[in-house]
Amino acid sequence: MSFRCVLDIQAKLGECPIWSARDKALYWCDIDGPTLNRFDPATGENRATRMPESIGSFALRKPAGFIVALRSGIWLARADRTLDRRILAAPYDPAHHRFNDGRCDAAGRFFVGYMNEKRDAPSAALMCVDASGRMTEVFAGFTISNGLGWSPDGRTMYHSDTPAHIVRAFDYDVATGKIANERVFKQWQGETDRPDGAAVDSAGNYWSAFYRGGKVVQISPRGETLAEYPVPAMCPTMCAFGGPDLRTLYVTSARGGRDAQELARLPQSGGIFAMTVDVPGLPEPYFAG
């Protein structure tokens, strides 16, 4: 199994790939574009909708549309990806913080973390937006919120802090959205072992994109490294399972800020890559609000 480039788009900071079974399309964002995109793997067509400011992440919404985390706060967007209205202001100073990784749990709550762009203090937090539009803090005290995912039974939540080289696990109560029993799921020491966005497959394996590591790492539910897959880009950012059988693993990547020598060696940096896997992923939940 190996990754191939399916969309050579040279995104500045490609992120948040989400497969929509409803639309048979992969949605994704370029945080620094800033754009919200729809990629059709059948035709190779990508349609970009410009955002007015940095877009950290988003989730699908029933019966149509999206919930979108922009720098200024949480917005709702229409099915054509144009913004509708802001429902929540950002819980931080947008001069030096912004929303980052986010996705929905099985009950349709939108979990979204933010990051300290200065990276000079552990001043970030993970937030939860419920169906009523209320936002509450889940936990705090880290620098960059990343790597959200849940086990197939919904009883374990994963979260990574990229510059700390750590993925944490929590007991999770899907009925209440509460976490407990924080613990280290996986810790690395290498400078390029930086766990960014992630996805969980139907066997409970956690797939993490290593920003500046040029690879995707497959980790068992027990925290054992099962395999590492090189990506033709130094900065893969997040994984998503897609395709009709959820056996295609997509990964977004970043191009912005990389030097000319690296880009000459890895010219498809900023593209979207895909690989066929043996174990299918899990359907992406919709926001319930």
* Whole-number total of structural domains: 1
List the uncertain runs: none
CATH architecture: 6 Propeller
CATH topology label: Neuraminidase
Task: Report the C-alpha radius of gyration, rounded.
Answer: 17 Å
Total strand segments: 24
| Mean of pLDDT | 97
Order of helices and strands: EEEEEEEEEEEEEEEEEEEEEEEHE
Proportion of residues in helical segments? under 10%
Structure classification: mainly beta
Q: Give, in spatial order, the strands making up the sheet with the most strands.
A: 1-24-23-22
The proportion of residues in beta strands is over 45%
**CATH class type:** Mainly Beta
| Anisotropy-based shape | globular
Q: Report the major sheet.
A: 4 strands, antiparallel
Q: Helix count, per DSSP?
A: 1
CATH superfamily: TolB, C-terminal domain
Keywords for this entry:
289 residues, mainly beta, Neuraminidase, four-stranded antiparallel β-sheet, 1 helix, 24 strands
Q: Can you offer a commentary on this structure?
A:
- This protein is mainly beta and 289 residues long.
- It has one domain (4-276): Neuraminidase (6 Propeller).
- The protein is 2% helix and 52% strand.
- The protein has a four-stranded antiparallel sheet with strand order 1-24-23-22, with no helix packed on it. A four-stranded antiparallel sheet has the order 2-3-4-5, with no helix packed on it. The chain has a four-stranded antiparallel sheet with strand order 6-7-8-9, with no helix packed on it.
- A hairpin with a 4-residue loop joins strand 19 (206-210) and strand 20.
- The longest helix is centred in the last third of the chain and has 6 residues, at 260-265.
- The protein is globular.
- The model has no long low-confidence stretch (mean pLDDT 97).
